[in-house]
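Researcher: Next sequence.
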Amino acid sequence: MRKFFNRQRVALITLSMSLLISGVLPIMGSAETNQESRWLILSSSSSRSGFKTSFSSLSTSVSSVLSSPSFLPSPSLPLQNTQDPDKGPFQVPRASGNIKIDGHLDEPDWEKALVLALPYEWLPGDNIPALVRTECLLVYDRDYLYVGFRCYDPDPKSIRAHLMDRDDTDRLIQDDHVVIMIDPFNDERRGFQFRVNPLGVQADANFSELEGYEDFSWDAIWNSKGQITDWGYSVEIALPFNQLRFPKTKAIQTWGFSAERSYPRNVRHRLISHKRERHITCVLCQVNKITGIEGISPGYNLEFDPTLTANRTDQRESIPSGSMAEGKIKADPGLTTRWGITPNLILNATINPDFSQVEADVAQLEVNTRFALRYPEKRPFFLEGADFFLTPIEAVFTRTVADPAGGVKLTGKVGRNAIGFFTTYDRINNLLFPSNQGSLSTSLDEGVWGGVFRFRHDVGQGSAVGALYTGRLSDNYANHVAGVDGFFRLSQTKTVRFQYLHSETKYAREIGQSFQQPYRSYGGGEAIFGEFSHRGRNWLYNFSYEARSPLFRADFGYVPRVDLQLFKGLVARVFWGEKGDWFNRLHFGLSALEGYTWNWNLTDRQVSLFGNYMGPWQSQVNLEFNATREFYRGQYFDLTQVVSFLEVKPVSGVRFFLMGVYGDGVDYNNIRKATSLRVIPLIEGSIGSHLNINAQHAFEKLSLAGQKIYVANLSQVKFIYNFNVRTFVRLIFQYLDMDRNPALYTTPVSPTNQTFFTQFLFSYKLNPQTVLFLGYSDNYFGAKNIDLTQTDRTFFVKLGYAWTR
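Model: Next structure:
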């Protein structure tokens, strides 16, 4: 775990595909939050942008429209205290007794609870009457906010509900489930989101309105249960106040609140407690308001999360005939603490934070690529308050901290001011050396101190200005980055954002000489970002400019390309289907980009035409045509490419996906134009509510004048059996076969190689931090004249415990 953007040993190489970079992708958050309007065409050249995709990012959430009959609940289950379906504010009563979270909603306190109806369907319908009836109930006491749902259904046997791991959102959004969004500061800028399916499976995320950031890697400790009944299903939720942030006041508080129900049948209907207008881009500005909350306490707001990870790796001394040498058992203890100084100001500290991962980082192919790959953060210490450090230029990316010995973090909000600060001491110094044409990286076995400070001030209604500083220091090395940024909401559909950063960097002599970096004195650089965006009901357009000077370095962030000026523009027309139409949404558009070096030499040009269809069976079809000019190593390459994909979810628990990319490409290894074909099929199915099977294959071929340069095939099969919401076993098989034509390479390469990977995992999670993992994994390698041979095997165990008060 000591390499920059490192892959764990258990990861196999997969094929990097450019479709979801080139296709219609949601921006400013996930498709779940902003699916109806926030779309942008990104550059189809993954090498140009520095991003790659893989198996885990193959699917995009889709919705479509078909007519269905409305349904009224049974007279024996009447609504209670139902409020008018406007925004409120609505009074939340205080509970008088204990509520047991069992999914039954049968305690006396539920009889006096505030009941919000979910009368609207906002997708695929446009605030039309909901097809089925749903009640959301709210009550609170000193320590908890209690939320209950009664979800009526005309055919309870059609309810889609499967057991799965928490935060498995790719599968959860295919199930029936309920969602709540809470904005405790009622400033329409930041919310906490919680999802539960009918079996009690949880997912949680924090959401930042300004950045459109919906992050499901954030975890809270809360309780939920669900029950399927003869009239539908019910859900009970208990949210501890010590897991939320809210104003410190004795006065009655008013919070933003939204309740939603996902009702997937032939069409995925999304029902909500308030109107969700398509001509308004903000999410939190449209939610309900709840009030009456007072005298609440986060308790001591203390959390201690000790962990112990132990593993043993055996390695073959030589391939293929060497013996397997038994490794030493390594035990790695750690501790992360959390203290709510106030309900809205959180202090975190960590010693040797846990970095063990029971599933490999998303596997990505480093063949025929130009820029450093990006892997997501998963460590709790860095995830706490991560949205406080977001800016348009990713100057803070905590995976740069590879092996921290410890750290301290303070995040929170005081009035209209949000602050974030953290400092770490890393045993490893990870360095990324970007340029216009590619990036290099290295890792040094030397300690490095790092620190980040972030300040943001709310301006008016929905706007903000901010400042950022990052620094990294060790012997003979330093990197400082500082700048300002802003976000301004000009209207309900139009926004402007900007950022300016200046960096100063100095490297040790040997590093500077080896990687052609400044080392005698500080090298200064600038980065600029500006964007104007309109996202209305029927028209979307976006124009942006981004520039980074040759010596700009953001060593605490992810900036793999510099010496760049990039202009982007997009115009798209959206057509919405009505009830009974053959489509949910049709989306057509044109995008273009033009890129230059800092000295105005053309490096990138692309024009893209695209179309997207959403319809029955939760289907989505996308077709795109790209015409590109790309500069690489002194040559211009004129490329054309067709990109398409299809996704269908015909019945409960079944998903099909097929992606294809065909056309010209650049053979970066040999600096020439080539023909590229990429195909990825995927099928996923559930057998009952316990067993899930996911089978995927990736094929990629690069050829020159009809002759193969290389062919790659990667297959993966994953079996998951969930005993309940807390316990599962998982078995993964991956096989990669690479076949190259050495005669078409300018440098020596192996004509063939294969890798095979297996992993077994037993997982028990009482909550996100109280866990037990037991596992085994191994790797095999084969090449010309070498049969597929086991190279290593690893046994591992992880224990984690969360103590909260």
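Model: The chain has seven helices and 45 strands. The two ends are 33 Å apart (CA to CA).
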